[in-house]
Design the sequence.
């Protein structure tokens, strides 16, 4: 978001659907010199958090009617001075009366006219300022900074080639987009990290710089080491030389993660597949472990082994989020078969979109930015919204397919049923 210093600028928080946070009117607000769009997100709970954190002049809400009403009431509790403007899909007098009763200061209907929207924001603020002067109240307050204790999301694959780094990079960008919060992305694939390549970044400062000063990490050091990305995500790159990994162990990783969580609302870690001291430290620190797999037998076999490893080492089942990448795909194993054999729910799927993902990787641009309207980009936003606390459906299949997967296809078109060949699997 742009930084505005003039006191006359109206500070605004926008809450919209996760799949519609790139609407033209939101982009226009961000570009308007009279508006400071301090946060724009697609997660309801994050909207409440952002209002609490930023104490904006105006909260603009573009969500279903029940959620608009809920957010107006929640905003009144955490930021009584914030003025709420609601956006409805169409003119609806019953909905207007309901939202006025809830406390909305203005209600607009789509399609939105940019001048009308800005005029509405200016008018509700002006009316509130007049009211405050009449009753002897001070002007609207400036935003109040609040400390964070960020959520740590560790992304790993049970084997190479399942797309864990692609998931980590795009998830970090999606979290930034849908939550409006500060997001850090750390590449802890220490020997051969690829986050820098996928984001087209370079810096002589890397995670190794933090590791060797892990007892004295402060804001100045983080500012020098973290690399800003165009999406707003701050990136901690992997060491440039594999030999430097020898200087990084559990103590260094613990200190680095602690420092990042104190400064960012979300910390996404791209973690390698090796179950060593560093990986186990990250798993133990994580709020959620995203285990990324694909609908092929070798990847699923390794995923089964990883799940059994987590169980043996006391990782809580609810902390493991199983993400099925490149699904649905042609002649891949069905969702029904995968869940049956892994005996762990698939929390989300990311559809196969080879041309878009390959183009993005080769250009060093996240697919959320290169193809923002694609099915895979929308799926990333839904996953990010779910991680941020919103109640969204993260299993996304074509309309012609059921939630059970591809089981309705003729047998000749389906992948053969498979066996894991592991002990006690029963198959």
Sequence:
């Amino acid at each position: 978001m742009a930084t505005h210093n003039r006191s006359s600028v109206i500070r605004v928080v926008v809450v919209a659907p996760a799949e519609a946070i790139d609407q033209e009117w939101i982009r226009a607000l961000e570009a308007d010199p009279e508006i400071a769009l301090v946060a724009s997100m697609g997660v309801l709970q994050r909207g409440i958090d952002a209002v609490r954190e930023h104490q904006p002049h105006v909260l603009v809400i573009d969500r279903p009617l029940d959620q608009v009403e809920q957010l107006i009431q929640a905003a009144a509790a955490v930021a009584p001075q914030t003025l709420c403007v609601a956006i409805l899909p169409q003119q609806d007098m019953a909905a207007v009366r309901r939202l006025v009763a809830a406390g909305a200061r203005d209600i607009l209907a789509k399609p939105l006219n940019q001048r009308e929207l800005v005029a509405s924001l200016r008018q509700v603020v002006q009316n509130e300022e007049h009211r405050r002067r009449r009753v002897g109240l001070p002007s609207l307050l400036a935003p109040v900074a609040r400390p964070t204790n960020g959520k740590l999301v560790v992304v790993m694959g049970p084997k190479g080639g399942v797309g864990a780094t692609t998931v980590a990079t795009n998830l970090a960008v999606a979290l930034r987009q849908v939550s409006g919060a500060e997001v850090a992305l750390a590449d802890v694939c220490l020997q051969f990290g690829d986050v820098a390549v996928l984001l087209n970044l370079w810096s002589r400062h890397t995670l190794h710089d933090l590791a060797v000063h892990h007892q004295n990490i402060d804001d100045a050091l983080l500012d020098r080491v973290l690399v800003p990305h165009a999406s707003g995500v701050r990136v901690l790159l992997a060491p440039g030389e594999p030999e430097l990994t020898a200087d990084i162990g559990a103590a260094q990783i613990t200190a680095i993660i602690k420092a990042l969580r104190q400064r960012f609302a979300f910390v996404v870690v791209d973690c390698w597949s090796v179950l060593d001291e560093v990986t186990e430290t990250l798993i133990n620190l994580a709020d959620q472990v995203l285990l990324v797999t694909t609908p092929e037998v070798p990847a699923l076999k390794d995923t089964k082994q990883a799940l059994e490893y987590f169980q043996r080492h006391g990782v809580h089942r609810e902390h493991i989020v199983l993400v099925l990448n490149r699904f649905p795909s042609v002649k891949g194993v069905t969702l029904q078969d995968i869940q049956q054999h892994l005996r762990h729910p698939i929390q989300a799927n990311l559809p196969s979109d080879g041309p878009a993902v390959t183009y993005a990787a080769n250009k060093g641009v996240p697919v959320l930015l290169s193809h923002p309207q694609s099915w895979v980009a929308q799926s990333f936003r839904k996953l990010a919204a779910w991680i941020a606390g919103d109640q969204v459906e993260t299993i996304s299949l074509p309309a012609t397919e059921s939630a059970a997967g591809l089981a309705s296809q003729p047998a000749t078109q389906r992948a053969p049923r498979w066996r894991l060949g592991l002990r006690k699997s029963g198959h």
About this structure: Confidence is low (pLDDT under 50) at residues 1-7, 141-147, 399-427. The first strand starts at residue 10 and ends at 15.
